[in-house]
Structure formats: C-alpha cells, structure tokens
C-alpha cells in the first residue's frame, strides 16, 4: 500500500453551528452540505466532515469525543496577520510564532483552540 495524501478527517463536535462559524469566519473554510444533511468544511483539496456528538455516523472512531484532535494547517497568509485576525475575533493564542517541523521541512506555527478545545496549529514553511 502506498498512501498519497489525506482526503478528509472527521471531527466530533458539541455544537455544529459554533464549529461551522469558527472554521468559516475565522479560518476561511467553506461549509458544504452533503449526503442527507451532513456538514463538511472544505479547504484546498481536503475537507473536515463534522459529526454531532451523540449522533455520529457509522462507522466511526472507537471513542468519538470532542476536543481530542491536534490539527496543523498550512497557510499562505503571513503569520503576523493570522495572529492579528485571531485577536480581532477574540481567539486566545496559546503559542506563536514558534519554530516546528512540518511534513516536508521547517515551519513556523501559531497555536490556538477551536470551540471544542481541539488544538489548531496554523503554519508556514520557512
């Protein structure tokens, strides 16, 4: 088996609308509806499918829970601007701008949390 890329991942969320608002208004993703009223957040060539806690779609993670994800997104927006936008939306910055290692080399990252407490890392390659 040879894996080429990640197509989508699933987040279990406590409040669909809060999550949709956060990822569309703050992170610039696009919400789409599919398969009988399910929601996903599109960005680039990937998406995040959303499961409402207690109403997950089968099959699902063995322990589907809110706030257990640690996600890193690559941005073309300067990180200083990312931090300013987060402050404008009253999103608490946990750490940044911090040197890290991405999948293909060194990155710089800013960390914060989504409404469910998932750790969000927004990064740029150096």
UniProtKB/TrEMBL annotation:
Judging by the UniProt lineage, the source's domain of life is Bacteria
- The protein's name is Glyoxalase
The cross-references to CDD domains, in alphabetical order and at most eight, read: GLOD5 (cd07253)
Cited Gene3D superfamilies: 2,3-Dihydroxybiphenyl 1,2-Dioxygenase, domain 1
Family annotation (PROSITE patterns): VOC
- Alphabetized InterPro entries for the sequence: Glyas_Bleomycin-R_OHBP_Dase, Glyas_Fos-R_dOase_dom, GlyoxalaseI/FosfomycinResist, VOC_core
User: What range(s) does the VOC domain occupy?
Assistant: 5-125
């Amino acid at each position: 088996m040879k894996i080429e890329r990640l197509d989508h991942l699933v987040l279990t969320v406590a409040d669909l609308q809060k999550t949709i608002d956060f990822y569309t208004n703050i992170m610039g993703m696009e919400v789409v509806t599919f398969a009988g009223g399910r929601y996903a957040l599109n960005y680039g060539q990937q998406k995040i499918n959303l499961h409402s806690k207690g109403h997950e779609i089968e099959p699902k993670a063995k322990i589907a829970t809110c706030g257990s994800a640690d996600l890193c997104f690559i941005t073309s927006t300067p990180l200083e601007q990312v931090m300013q936008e987060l402050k404008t939306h009253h999103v608490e910055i946990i750490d940044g701008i911090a040197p890290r290692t991405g999948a293909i080399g060194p990155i710089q990252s800013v960390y914060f949390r989504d409404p469910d407490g998932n750790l969000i890392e927004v990064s740029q390659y150096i």
